[in-house]
């Protein structure tokens, strides 16, 4: 696509040229018109024009003056000159200024088309060459940046490379800071990275000569001119509505110090978690932090002793106390990291105990291992609190389950021991010190049948053994297994076995006789 500007002080010529251009088999984007060189210059400054068709003789500013001024302002555009004068001096001057053609009025359609096609071919060739050169230049810059990034991160480079690279931007490497920028995002927040937007803002503050991008991910890292005030970039980011954390090293000298500066800027960034209200972290924020400490295990044990009590408010208060900013901001960031690791280890111990009872439910302990996976310390503490409260609920249910199992085991033991006595649900629930209704529901939920049905089955199981193995009378067997009357026993027996107790005894004795005869025959 090509944009063309027609410049002529006569309207009928402008209209005629427009009409002819639109009939040519060319991919034209836009056709602009101007009545003078002054107006044409304004259009050239405001729009991307590839070709100008201009008259030579015009009031205020003629075509040759327009060409000269465009060249002086370094406006990249090609010119075709048209004139009613066949004076070679005009053509010669136009060619000296870079005109791609010289046409006499009245302009012939064929001549104009030929001149336009030649100019169009030159434009295409130049644009393709420009794109190729830009691509080559961009790849070269990217290669240089990657080499610098690798050197910054500790890759070994020879002395010659260091000196050569330093000479490419000697002013910057003589006096620079390393700057890390990380846009503050919520976990899983959608949206593309804004590192290129932040990079553009940095260039506006330091200029292209005073700023070099070394890394885009996971953080934007720049080498910037150290003489610029440290507050300039954070202020520009805020004005550009970029909510970013900035970490800046002190002034550095020489490219050799770049790896050390990289270690320092990462350390400064990690300390930004201790100062969530500070948008720009400098060495002055960390130089007084204590390097020796003791992890508050007593407070941690006290916190975990609350697990299973269902006291959520006390757990929340315990977390807030352990992670209070006054405590964290006394020490190097490693203290906070060790504190996080200690809590994760305790979480793992508790989960190991109750995992068999959790079913499909799980705690996401993995999400708590790395503090720096979160936008800030506040978000990490929220995630920690959420997992501790979930553990509290699981552990409470586990303790209830364990306690209920003990109570049920004791209740069943008591039933098997006392089945021959008058026995009811109230007596058993009192024996294990549980509420009547609660024990009834608990019993049925865990045993699979109600208390009365379970007691009947225990008594009848004992009765069947007595009927098969002894000669006690039916009324005696009924009393021995806890039934108050012969009638209630026989009714219960018939309902379960679908026969009378006497029938069952006869059936079992015939069975024993058959088994005895079989054994005699076998012998």
TrEMBL record:
It is found in: Cytoplasm. Residues 409-507 form the HTH araC/xylS-type domain. SMART domains: HTH_ARAC, REC. GO terms for biological process: phosphorelay signal transduction system. Its main location: cytoplasm. The modification 4-aspartylphosphate is found at residue 55. PROSITE patterns: HTH_ARAC_FAMILY_2, RESPONSE_REGULATORY. GO terms for cellular component: cytoplasm. Residues 3-120 form the Response regulatory domain. The keyword Transcription regulation applies. Keywords: Cytoplasm, DNA-binding, Phosphoprotein, Transcription, Transcription regulation, Two-component regulatory system. InterPro entries: CheY-like_superfamily, Homeodomain-like_sf, HptR, HTH_AraC, Sig_transdc_resp-reg_receiver. The keyword Transferase does not apply. GO terms for molecular function: DNA-binding transcription factor activity; sequence-specific DNA binding. This is DNA-binding response regulator. It comes from Paenibacillus donghaensis.
